[in-house]
Automatic annotation (TrEMBL):
<feature type="domain" description="SusF first starch specific CBM">
    <location>
        <begin position="162"/>
        <end position="281"/>
    </location>
</feature>
<dbReference type="InterPro" id="IPR033408">
    <property type="entry name" value="SusF_N"/>
</dbReference>
<keyword id="KW-0732">Signal</keyword>
<protein>
    <submittedName>
        <fullName>DUF5115 domain-containing protein</fullName>
    </submittedName>
</protein>
<dbReference type="InterPro" id="IPR058976">
    <property type="entry name" value="CBM_1st_SusF"/>
</dbReference>
<feature type="domain" description="Outer membrane protein SusF N-terminal">
    <location>
        <begin position="20"/>
        <end position="156"/>
    </location>
</feature>
<feature type="signal peptide">
    <location>
        <begin position="1"/>
        <end position="21"/>
    </location>
</feature>
<dbReference type="Pfam" id="PF17142">
    <property type="entry name" value="SusF_N"/>
</dbReference>
<dbReference type="Pfam" id="PF26120">
    <property type="entry name" value="CBM_1st_SusF"/>
</dbReference>
Length: 477
């Protein structure tokens, strides 16, 4: 049996000399030396426990190490065991302390949190440097003992999540195509650019034209292997054949086919972290309404118009400003003035160009105050904001060669140009000197990619935000 008496006595001698003027503290708050003053005891060491796979752990705590046996001098007890965990292979890694029992048991919740914070939730074995410390305590005084460093291997608890999924079923079947074993881009679920274990949400919108349409889900691994058989191993679906519930659980073991009971437009959302699904019937409103910092969150006059009823695509122009210095932040409302079922940053999995997610679920733009052209796809969860750096007029009057640049009038919410001299033989509006975003057609109803405008005049005002009208329109004088 190993004797700790000599080592502890020497350590305590130094401790008492350094603290003789201090009152003793109680057991719950013992005095301790700085951690760098920890002593080592020959033969008193920690041994790593077996690798931990949290998927197989059924208790609240789990063994991380064991200590060699030791006999303490009279009046001493061991306590306050803990491990300092440092992830291996992580740049600028930080240490995290987890308290344990003397037999090395740590709380599963604490240990799992350390792994996920360092490496994420992907179920891969991760190795940590684990420094084990224990206190020898007598009469409220403590000596820190370094029990050595071990490797602690831990694997997060998470199900298998593939990189992508495809919907198959009756709704994709035509005279020429079998919707059960043919894969196309329109059948692929949408997903953000994050790791699937950080964002396990996948979405797809689709339309059924008949009642009682059955479906299953094919993982990317099967597709890559050339196996699109809906009855193959790994296919995902409900646990009950013909399940027509709008919410439910999924399995990739002997998956059955779900059922859409009636014809319509639907959005199917998968949460692959808990293998669940939600089906929503989709009815897109004619407009969605901008509300945010521009008007101090008080007005929802500016709006985007529905341009693709099947996918829920809205486009239009919005003036984004920040007069109250609260940040260029906003949301969209489905009904002007109502926060029911609001459209916020959580609605989207992809933000592009100047669009960004912001605090408190708000959406933002990162290119400063100004007018933006928005392309919002609610079905696929994408939002793009293009800053209108220039709104130009181009046509026969200037040889279709260069833009007559307009000026933004924030009082009237319009772009304006004077002495421009447009002619009746054709002209259009375009954004940033290119044709990707342009307007044409009737003065009272300008549309994306519309026909050339055939009205002559010198003063042109363009009202793009639908603030006072459901249409984008212009005046020519």
């Amino acid at each position: 049996m190993k004797k700790l008496s000599l080592y502890i006595s020497i350590a305590l001698a130094g401790l008492f000399m350094g603290s003789c003027s201090e009152d003793f503290k109680d057991w719950a708050d013992p005095q301790t030396n700085p951690q760098e003053d920890a002593i080592t005891i020959p033969g008193f060491t920690a041994t790593a426990a077996q690798a931990i796979d949290f998927a197989s752990v059924t208790t609240d705590s789990v063994n991380t190490f064991s200590l060699s046996s030791a006999a303490l001098p009279e009046g001493f007890t061991l306590g306050n065991a803990r491990i300092e965990l440092t992830p291996q292979g992580v740049e600028n890694a930080t240490k995290t302390t987890v308290n344990t029992s003397l037999d090395g048991k740590g709380a599963v919740a604490d240990l799992a949190s350390v792994v996920e914070s360092a490496y994420g939730k992907r179920p891969t074995a991760r190795t940590f440097d684990a420094q084990v410390y224990v206190n020898a305590i007598k009469e409220g005084q403590a000596v820190l003992i370094d029990a050595g460093k071990i490797n602690l291997v831990m694997t997060p608890k998470a199900p298998f999540i593939d990189a992508a999924y495809y919907l198959v079923g009756d709704m994709f079947t035509t005279d020429d195509v079998n919707g059960w074993n043919t894969i196309s881009d329109k059948q692929k679920f949408k997903h953000s650019d994050k790791d699937v274990y950080e964002d396990p949400i996948f979405t797809i919108t689709f339309e059924t034209t008949k009642a009682d349409q059955y479906w299953k889900i094919i993982p990317k691994a099967n597709v890559d292997a050339g196996n699109t058989d809906a009855s193959a191993a790994g296919v995902v679906g409900p646990k009950v054949d013909g399940e027509d519930s709008m919410t439910g659980s999924l399995t990739n073991s002997d998956a059955k086919a779900g059922k859409i009971a009636k014809a319509g437009k639907y959005k199917l959302t998968l949460d692959m972290m808990d293998y669940s699904y939600t089906i929503e019937e989709v009815n897109y409103d004619p407009f969605i309404y901008f509300i945010g910092s521009t008007d101090g969150w008080k007005s929802s006059d500016q709006k985007l118009a529905l341009v693709d009823e099947a996918k829920g695509v809205y486009t239009g122009y919005v003036y984004v400003a920040d007069p109250n210095e609260a940040g260029l932040q906003f949301k969209f409302q489905r009904v002007a003035g109502s926060w029911d079922n609001e459209i916020n940053a959580g609605t989207f999995n992809t933000f592009s160009d100047a669009a960004t997610p912001n605090e408190n679920g708000n959406i933002g733009v990162n290119a400063g105050e100004g007018v933006y052209y928005f392309d919002v796809n609610l079905g696929e969860g994408t939002i793009k904001a293009t800053k209108v750096k220039t709104m130009g007029i181009i046509g026969q009057f200037n040889g279709w060669s260069s833009d007559a640049v307009m000026t933004w009038n924030a009082e009237e919410y319009c772009f304006e140009a004077t002495k421009v001299g447009v002619t009746a033989d054709g002209w259009k509006f375009r954004v940033n000197g290119g044709w990707d975003i342009n307007l044409g057609g009737s003065l009272n109803n300008l549309t994306a990619g519309g026909d050339n405008i055939t009205v002559a005049g010198n003063t042109v005002k363009l009202y793009p935000t639908r603030k006072t009208n459901d249409k984008i329109y212009c005046t020519v004088e």
